Amino acid sequence: MTDNDELVPVGKITGTHGIKGLLKVYSYSGNIESLQSAETAFLKGKDGLLREYTVKSVSAHGGGFILGLDDFSDINQVMSMAGSELCLKRSQLPVPDKDEYYWSDLIGLTVHTDQGVELGTLVDIFETGSSDIYVVRGGSKEYLIPAIADVIAHVDITGKKMIITPLDGLLDL
User: Fold this and answer.
1) ∠ at Cα 22 (51, 1), nearest 5°?
2) Lowest CB count within 10 Å: 40, 72, 143, 149, which one?
3) CA of 145: how far to CAs of 96, 101, 152, in Å?
4) Which CATH number fits domain 3-92: 2.40.128.490, 2.40.30.60, 3.30.530.20, 2.60.40.10?
5) What is the pTM of this model?
């Protein structure tokens, strides 16, 4: 698989919508354009298996999306898809702007302070409305790092490293 074929998680199937085989999707980015332009999408099931489907329809709905896949027209056909991760090929996604990153590229980075102290590994990201929060775990400690320019000093995806400038008291929580 080339880098352009690499699969990038873009959302999670949270349940069904209606009785006609539609799926509710929690989007990791809120970007509907990539999904609307995709001819195919991949679902990684709870069993770890990856399956490719043809995208029939995508529409915005309540902060997420409603996804229709070809060959599914009944709720009973898609109920087992709840909990699956929705992935697209990297080639189907827009190139991120400078200082923008896909969540899947950030998860796993080692996070250091600008003083050289290793805090741990970025293990999760969640949205708060104003900015994302990076969850960094090191040993028995967990840090919640706001993804804002004042804090995130440098991101090196290829070097798998992030440098932060902690705000006063940020690491004391």
Assistant:
1) 20
2) 149
3) 21, 16, 9
4) 2.40.30.60
5) 0.72
